[in-house]
């Protein structure tokens, strides 16, 4: 295996050479680009963490395609002398013995996921199944220059590797657990045989807010609609309409920021256009992940009223920019004329069903928590839309901290789908991580934070989903807390990771481990 991004100008130092030998790659080939080399050397305190992050960025790790990165981690850690387990799903578990004086301390699990959401700007040429990331430093942040960075959750992997490779950090016995397919339904955690894990103290490293300890999260599922369509032959002027310029974002963490969803805006456009001009829909596509708020949606149709289409697109664009002022005000409708054409278009009845579905499928906050101020309880995001020849495929991420509310919202989408003659299925369901009133780990971590910084951290419940909920259900007596450094715009091409925050959270994590002696 040789990731494309490894063929740069700066050769890894001694650690990279050991990895190269473990993978039986010639030393002169095991390279990374100059940006990655500079990041790896950015700060002496963080050298180990950033070096590990730069190595990880060189390896493609799209959800569902983690074989290469899992094999890399297994070979690397085995070469370093650790006992490593790689299960059938490609989850990785590495054990490290306690340092002197911590031999009787309870075992602690450190956990994150190795996969990443893969989004890019339209002008960026990048294949996430083959290419490593083009990372660099800008204004104190690590960026991937037009693609997602994978700080969610590559930084957890980097922290874990740096701790495993350290020789001077006091710590209890450790189990470092790195899972796969978290971003497409927590599938690695779902399939993991948790009986192999001996620890009951669990530190998850998948949060994005320094100074916050996450102690509860929503559960969720992917609700998938299949609505059959019929087609007929049509002729007219072919027009492409693209909704673009949207902010996008994480469908849990950013769902309360009043950001628009391109799939829903396209539904609004198609419904409004019915009153202005006749058209016959050919194609429709929007979004790649249901856990990312859709940034772009494209439709093609035949019409004899191109001028009316342009006029309405301009009118709706102005209305939406005003409606989303301050939160998503760059909404754009791009119109491309493609000349006279014949094509298979939707039968009028099928087209009516699709527009009806888009107008009525839930999006956004459905209910706020009645017990925790400011917490979104229940939400939905129609993240993937694809009009195939014989059906509309649509996938929504449904989230709630209340299981009954999650089921009820899923039922609503199911009823809508079946009303339109379609079939509905649920995939990747995961439970909520319930608040634990008694948590010695949380209390200890709060005390360490207060000693280091002179004030208490925020202890919060979140609306995004974490693997903690699955492990909490599967491992009796689990005491779990989640933390992580500041990241911005995760699940989008603007994702960045703060270097200063990464250092502070690293120092905090090290101090926490030093205090887990009993």
Provide an overview of this structure.
With 518 residues, this protein is α+β, with helices and mostly antiparallel strands. The protein is 30% helix and 28% strand. It is built from 13 helices and 25 strands. It has helices at 14-22, 34-40, 47-57, 67-79, 151-165, 187-191, 262-273, 306-323, 348-360, 403-419, 440-453, 468-474, 499-514, and strands spanning 10-11, 31-32, 83-86, 92-96, 108-113, 136-138, 141-143, 174-179, 201-204, 212-216, 219-228, 231-244, 249-250, 279-286, 292-293, 297-303, 332-346, 364-368, 376-387, 391-400, 423-430, 458-461, 479-482, 487-488, 496-498. Strands 11, 12, 14, 16, 17, 18, 19, 20 and 21 form a nine-stranded antiparallel beta sheet that branches. A six-stranded mixed beta sheet has the order 3-4-8-5-9-23, covered by helices on one side. A hairpin with a 5-residue loop joins strand 3 and strand 4 (92-96). The radius of gyration is 24 Å and the shape is elongated. The chain starts with 9 loop residues before the first strand and ends with a helix. The model is unreliable at 1-32 and 39-45 (pLDDT under 50).
User: How many β-strand runs?
Assistant: 25
Mean pLDDT: 90
Task: Supply Rg.
Answer: 24 Å
Distance between the termini: 43 Å
The level of helicity is 25-40%
- Extract low-pLDDT stretches: 1-32, 39-45
Overall 3D form: elongated
Structural class: alpha+beta
Question: What can be said about the biggest beta sheet?
Answer: 9 strands, antiparallel
